[in-house]
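Mods, move this if it's the wrong board.
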Amino acid sequence: MLLGVPAVVPIRMLYFIVVLWAQPTGSDFGDDLSAALVLFGPIAAACAVLWWLANRPRARRTQLAQLSYWLLALAGALLPTAAVISIWP
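Not the wrong board. Structure tokens:
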């Protein structure tokens, strides 16, 4: 759960990109989406790589099966984000 709290920012950024992509608003849509992808895309990718690097050693030492560990780690990253999105849409 501790590693899920920093995931709120990049997942929220990806949520913003999806909302922009799903709801085009005229001619500015392409500019808004490309600007969001340029700004948020590399940050979200870097955070995903850091999350994976932080969880990889823990996955090797755990008693859980690898698939179970990664699903729990993903749930631990998504739960705080879901709480933030439900409070602040």
